[in-house]
Amino acid sequence: MSSVRVLVVDDYEPFRRFVRSTLGTRPEMHIVREASDGPEAVRAFEELRPDLIILDIGLPTLNGIEAARQIRKLSAESKILFVSQESSWDVVQEALRSGAQGYVVKAHAASELLVAVEEVCRGRRYIGSGISDPNRTGITLAQNCERLFD
User: Can you state the percent helix, strand and coil of the chain, rounding each to 5?
Assistant: First the structure.
């Protein structure tokens, strides 16, 4: 994998620190900026055009899903990976429909973040563990995800 320019967007500084530390173990990952709300994320994206945006959903002013929609209108090339405490299948579906290629629940970020980043950067989808499907339809989460991307 060649050099990857990353924008990290989360309103909780300790989590941004965790992401910096985790990605810092990979020499090809370069965090070009951090943002703490949706409008700041969109401005940073416009200015820097990073390869990857790691984006929380619960942001002040403009939530991550709306920020992703605005970013997607500006560019179809950049990859979006949501990392959020939200674990409901409905929220995950909405996040993926906004243009994201991946989703990780924060409670699983220690074990899944690097794998998710690698998969998304390679053009693959990544849906982490810890996502709940309250409908219990018998359709697996993987099958649900495939329907979203078809």
Answer: 45, 20, 35
Runs of H (alpha helix) within the chain: 13-23, 38-48, 64-74, 89-97, 109-121, 141-149
First to last CA, the chain: 26
According to DSSP, residue 79 is labeled E
pLDDT tens sequence across 53-90: 999 999 999 999 999 999 999 999 999 999 999 999 99
Q: Which residue has the tokens 């990073």?
A: 50
The domains of the chain are located at 4-149
Which pTM was predicted?
Answer: 0.89
3 state SS of 35: strand
The CATH number assigned to the domain with range 4-149 reads 3.40.50.2300
